[in-house]
Specification:
Layout lengths: L4 E5 L5 H13 L2 E5 H6 L9 E8 L7 H9 L5 E10 L7 H9 L8 E6 L13 H23 L4 E2 L4 H9 L1 H6 L9 E2 L8 H5 L5 E4 L2 E4 L8 H5 L5 E2 L17 H5 L15
Parallel strand pairs: 1-2, 1-3, 3-4, 4-5, 5-6
Antiparallel strand pairs: 7-10, 8-9
Helix pairs in contact: 1-5
Length: about 280
């Protein structure tokens, strides 16, 4: 009999939350817990009995800093099945499973299953966002895979998507240096004159890394490099360099500012944002 499941998630522009929701809907009796909120909460970080999952985006072939920090702190003693559902922009899961395994090994645990979902990328510094047709194709593919993955989780199958040797090497050599630089990645961000001071960027930031000064965002250099502020801005006012002005913005169409607020438990007034 399938035990209730818990999925801990971190998302920047909605992909990982969307996948977590799809898995939860298919599994039933599943609780979604935002990782930023869990880390800020004074409650003990202990996973309940049953299946426990992690849903997050792949960063440079590995884990986001906040996900690694959470995995190091959460007590998994009662979890009887551990799985990972990560999202990425087409580069594969890289060494994310292997990195998570190394962290879990300190509790004498390892992933029972690992799954990767190719989704539209939000990293506009590297390339423009996918067109509408390509996005819909990726959503459809991910939804189909979520049904198969949920069946595997329900049956407690031990299975993983492939991790390529080159990417594992890339993880070991490059990922640590990449992650060290994420806190100050926000030094690349700037705001142009189209900014209306709506505070969307401040509200969606899962790291509470933005404060408003003179109706303009100011970054505090504790960035998680999730690009939520860049992509949720309704005026495309936040730039990551000259090329970003000509590039689109991406957020999962089912994810709202309110959903992002639930990541860190703040409930400010959303009246200025209407339905965003």
């Amino acid at each position: 009999m399938f035990m209730p499941a818990t999925i801990y998630y971190f998302t920047g522009t909605g992909n990982s939350l969307a996948i977590a929701r799809q898995l939860a809907a298919a599994l039933g009796e599943t609780t979604l817990v935002p990782i930023p909120w869990a880390l800020e909460s004074k409650k003990p970080l202990m996973a309940p009995k049953g299946s426990t999952g992690f849903s997050f985006p792949v960063y440079c072939a590995g884990l986001p800093k906040i996900v690694a920090r959470f995995a190091e702190k959460v007590d998994l003693s009662d979890a009887d099945y551990l799985f990972c559902a990560c999202t990425m922009g087409g580069t594969g899961a890289g060494g994310a499973f292997a990195e998570l395994d190394r962290i879990l090994a300190r509790q004498g645990r390892s992933l029972d299953a690992g799954f990767g979902f190719v989704m539209p990328s939000n990293f506009i510094e590297k390339c423009d966002v996918a067109g509408a047709d390509e996005q819909q194709a990726l959503f459809a593919g991910a939804a189909k895979k979520a049904k198969d993955v949920s069946a595997a989780i329900r049956e407690h199958r031990r299975t993983r998507d492939a991790e390529h040797g080159f990417r594992l090497l890339f993880l070991r050599l490059v990922h640590p240096f990449f992650i060290r630089g994420t806190s100050t990645w926000d030094k690349r961000f700037s705001v142009d004159d189209t900014c209306t001071g709506c505070t969307a960027c401040e509200k969606v930031c899962p790291a509470a890394n933005i404060v408003m000064q003179d109706q303009r965002p100011v970054w505090l250099h504790k960035c998680e490099m999730c690009y939520a502020c860049v992509n949720f801005c309704p005026k495309k006012s936040i730039q990551t360099g000259d090329k970003s002005r000509q590039r689109g913005r991406y957020r999962h169409p089912d994810i709202t500012v309110r959903d992002m607020l639930e990541q860190h438990g703040r409930k400010p007034d959303l009246s200025s944002l209407k339905n965003r």
